[in-house]
Write a structure and sequence with these properties.
The protein has 203 residues and is mostly beta strands. It contains three helices and 13 strands; from the N terminus they run H-E-E-H-E-E-E-E-E-E-E-E-H-E-E-E. 10% of the residues lie in helices and 37% in strands. The strands form three sheets. Strands 3, 5, 6, 8, 11 and 13 form a six-stranded antiparallel sheet that branches. A five-stranded antiparallel sheet has the order 4-7-12-9-10, with no helix packed on it.
Length: 203
């Protein structure tokens, strides 16, 4: 596990995890990535489908921006694999991302869903934004999909699947999730998994 790996690094005098990047600054992030996990079940939207028609992306595969400040990987018994990416509600950053591109995906249309839950702040207005999520086209510098559920729609502490529609993957496209940037409305936002389900008709 993590402790044995960290001890081995120390034994061999490993001081850096990259060029000019001291190892001690990386170890806390590595430790958070080594939290206990369980095998996730089949996502509800993929029930009954053959494995080749759906993809389950867990928090360890997310692209995390500002890990350790804007987002961190934590244990979460409510998550499908026991772990999640947690973001503070006061941040507006797109800290959870995943590239919607690559040869495996391109040329076929996939329905994108993100499983998210939020922890509302005490007394949060029901109409306050709970979090934002979407699909961004980096080349055109615009969103091709986006939703912003309210506390009433997304609160309660349970994970809910949010549908971003069916899309053709391509260069520069990526899925993103962000807190509302209002700690008076939401204490934290948690992302469990992103799922892609192949649409029946090819593009």
């Amino acid at each position: 596990g993590y402790r044995r790996f960290a001890a081995a690094l120390e034994e061999f005098g490993t001081g850096f995890h990259g060029e000019g990047r001291p190892l001690p600054e990386y170890l806390p992030l590595l430790e958070r990535r080594c939290i206990p996990r369980k095998t996730a079940g089949v996502p509800p939207e993929a029930a009954g489908l053959p494995e080749g028609r759906w993809i389950d992306l867990q928090e360890t595969s997310f692209r995390l921006a500002g890990e350790g400040s804007w987002v961190e990987l934590v244990e979460d018994p409510a998550a499908s694999d026991g772990g999640a990416a947690r973001m503070p509600g006061g941040s507006p950053q797109w800290a959870v991302q995943w590239p919607l591109s690559g040869r495996v995906l391109e040329g076929r249309r996939w329905r994108v869903r993100v499983h998210v839950r939020c922890e509302p702040a005490p007394g949060a207005p029901a109409g306050a934004t709970a979090f934002r999520l979407g699909i961004h086209d980096g080349g055109r510098k615009q969103d091709v999909a986006g939703i912003a559920p309210t506390v009433a729609e997304a609160g309660g502490g349970a994970y809910r699947s949010h549908d971003l529609g069916a899309h053709l993957p391509g260069p520069g496209l990526y899925i993103w999730v962000a807190p509302p940037g209002d700690e008076n409305a939401v204490k934290s936002v948690w992302v469990d998994r992103i799922t892609l389900v192949l649409e029946k008709d090819r593009a």
